[in-house]
Design goal:
The complex is a heterodimer of chains A (about 140) and B (about 250). By secondary structure, chain A is an alpha/beta fold. Helix content of chain A is about 35%, strand content about 25%. In chain A, the strands form 4 sheets. Chain A has a 4-stranded parallel β-sheet with strand order 5-4-1-6, with helices on both faces. The longest helix of chain A is centred in the N-terminal third of the chain and has 17 residues. Chain B has a 9-stranded mixed β-sheet, sandwiched between helices. A two-stranded antiparallel sheet of chain B has the order 2-5. In chain B, strands 3-4 form a two-stranded antiparallel ribbon. In chain B, a hairpin with a 2-residue loop joins strand 10 and strand 11. In chain B, helix 3 crosses helix 4. Classes of the chains: A alpha/beta (about 140), B alpha/beta (about 250). At the A-B interface, helix 3, strand 9 and strand 10 of A face helix 3, helix 4, strand 9, strand 10 and strand 14 of B. Strand 10 of chain A pairs antiparallel with strand 14 of chain B.
């Protein structure tokens, strides 16, 4: 079982948030005593993710996925999560990932904790701190 | 065209946020509840479809009896009928399952929900709802046009906008921009009186599991006093940023 992280790219280049979530996933994996697998779509220089704690990269190269399509991207992530046996999928909070994350969660029958702001507090039950009430409070979910 | 607008009953944006029961629950004492602002943009757009294209507009909310004044406000704005699923809205996955059952029974062409509620900021209900119903889905929607069974939508993306062509049935996750703030409607006396006579069906929830649970809440630490650092003392500045503020 590894932690799966979706590393977003734009025109083949990783977005800044991709590297942030890779680092976050690395911290989560360390807590759980496992490794991080990244899924990227049409990205170049995937080997750079190793610097951020990623030990394996699944890069989907498909011309039909050159522009963002929430359903298709979600399916790629779902397939990766299943093939890797991932129990935790980490995504950024960009507009595109907030579009696809609920689809991924619903298809996997998984819980979804958006707006996480800290490393997990416990792994069983998996508990993470996130912002609520428009940043006027925090929930430990 | 039959439209369902999903309404969340949320604390007014100016509310002070406090927690109770050992910080395990939101303290609703003295808090005024309103229609979730993102939902209100959707409701206003639905009213436009009602007036210009003859749509029927229903509203649905998952919540206890305390949510009824907010639902009645939606009816006063002009919705034709309302449905309240008689259950506490504890988790987005649970809420989406309840709303999916409402949509299946109602045969709606368009489901409009705010992209997120301003209380628990889950941002998941429209997406999960669309997935459960296998309907087309556009999130962060800021423009919606319907022509027969074809829809043209614009969604906000990081640093721009994206135009999408799709078909009904469709789930929309909407936000500010779908209509202008100046177009939001305040119920008039006639609307309020008529809303009293409109149908508000209360239905019992279907059996559905929760996927997450908020076990504890807390508030951000109060802002500390401003610390002045001498312009020449870079070492002290770096020390404070690194060890106290922990931002570098």
């Amino acid at each position: 079982m590894s932690v799966l992280v979706y590393t977003e790219s734009d025109n083949g280049n990783f977005k800044k948030n991709a590297l942030e979530v890779a680092s976050y996933a690395s911290e989560v994996a360390k807590q759980l005593g496992t490794t991080v697998t990244a899924i990227s779509i049409n990205a170049n220089e995937n080997e750079n993710l190793g610097t951020y704690g990623v030990s394996k990269v699944l890069n989907v190269s498909n011309d039909q996925l050159k522009t963002f399509n929430a359903k298709a991207y979600a399916h790629a992530i779902i397939d990766a999560a299943k093939s890797e046996g991932a129990k935790i999928v980490i995504v950024s909070s960009s507009s595109d990932t907030k579009f696809l994350a609920p689809i991924v969660a619903a298809k996997l029958g998984a819980g979804y904790a958006p707006n996480a702001v800290a490393a997990p507090e416990s792994s069983n039950p998996f508990t993470v701190k996130r912002t609520v009430f428009s940043n006027k409070g925090f929930a430990h979910t | 065209m039959k439209i369902l607008v999903c309404i969340s009953n949320v604390p007014d944006t100016t509310s002070k946020i406090n927690f109770t029961d050992g910080d395990t629950k939101f303290d609703s004492n003295g808090v005024q509840f309103v229609i979730n602002p993102n939902d209100e943009f959707g409701l206003t757009r639905a009213m436009w479809f009602k007036e210009k294209q003859g749509a029927t507009v229903h509203v649905a909310s998952v919540g206890g009896a305390s949510a009824e004044p907010t639902i009645r406000k939606a009816l006063a704005i002009g919705a034709d009928e309302a449905i309240r699923v008689n259950a506490e809205a504890t988790d987005g996955y649970f809420v989406a399952q309840q709303l999916a059952a409402v949509v299946k029974n109602g045969g709606y062409d368009i489901v409009i929900a705010g992209r997120e509620s301003i209380d628990y900021n889950g941002g998941m209900v429209p997406g999960i709802l669309a997935t459960l119903l296998d309907m087309n889905f556009v999130n962060t929607c800021i423009d919606l046009q319907i022509d027969g069974t074809n829809a043209s939508a614009t969604r906000e993306i990081d640093g721009g906008k994206e135009k999408i062509a799709t078909t009904l049935p469709l789930v929309i996750g909407c936000q500010k921009g779908l209509v202008e703030e100046s177009e939001l409607r305040i119920p008039n006396m006639r609307g309020i009186m008529m809303a009293r006579k409109k149908v508000l069906n209360v239905i019992e929830p279907i059996e559905a599991a929760m996927a997450t649970q908020d076990i504890k809440f807390d508030k951000p630490a109060p802002k500390g006093a401003v610390k002045m650092v001498d312009a020449a003392n870079v070492e002290e500045l770096v020390n404070l940023l690194h060890n106290e503020a922990k931002v570098i």
